[in-house]
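Morning run. Coffee first, then this:
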Amino acid sequence: MRTRPRFYAALTITLAGLAAAAGCSSSSTSSASSGTSASSSASASSSADLSSVTLNVGDQKGTGAEAVLAAAGLLNTLPFKVNWSDFTSGPPMLQAMASGSVDVGGVGDAPPVFAASGGEAVEIVGARKTNDGDQDSVVVPKGSPITSIQQLKGKKIAYASGSSANYNLLTVLNKASLTTKDVSLVNLQPANALAAFTSGSVEAWDVWPPYVQQVVAQNGARVISTGTAYGNPYSFEVASKAAVADPKKAAAIKAYLTILNKGYVWTATHPAQWAAAWAKASGLPVSVMEQAAKLSATTPVAITDDTTTAEQGLVDQFFAAGLIPTKVDMKDYITDQFNDSVPAG
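And here it is:
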């Protein structure tokens, strides 16, 4: 039974709360009852008893793994103990993962690239794909005279360095024949970026759901770029290489991915129920979360050569832009050994 407070803070979380989250504020351990189907899928070769295993799982508002599992009625089927830790975005989660305090967690397309380039021992273990292209968007405040990306030249743009928004912004600028040197990039985690955006301290913000839907609905913001032309349609589950190398942890990761994938399938087929649950978890109106749930629906997919090629494309572009120090080979940071956690069909 979960004993810690609801893991989503309101989107107007204070800086102090942000620092605590980014510092990997660990939840109390939640023991989960063993589910027969989950246990049988924990290992391809045996029904290993995982009741003595504790998996340290990273979570964030943009992925909502804990909320997904709870809404789908799957949270208590995890056949191991869980320590949930909340993060403001993917990069600080992967930093905590590299330090050993997180075993697995969900992030966007760019965080694994930045982590790999920085020498962090992490590995992509699962993937999901959106049907409508990249989920991130560039928004401008209500009343802004800016109507095109070209008009952002020389303007301040908030974004989270190393996040999916970072890659989305790079592709958005490239397609507008601009570079990152043509704008003033302001690296802010989402809550601080929200404050900067609503106060007028920045002229634009590149971010993901549900922040996009929040500022559109509550602040009259306008979206000036989004969709399949930009970014990358993939999001990932990433694990520490140490956890993948540990047989018990690896079995727990496989069981986790199997159950989590079922959860994401449920959210895609029950958008109204998921929106209501996500709204309760985030503190945002259901009307906002209905839009966010619709746009952020993902389908679990197997790791293939195409997945690796897509991530390598991010490496090439970030390196060419001078945003990462090393042009790594993503084949060294991705594995298909958990592909049987993906639902058939």
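The chain is about 40% helix and 20% strand. Good start to the day.
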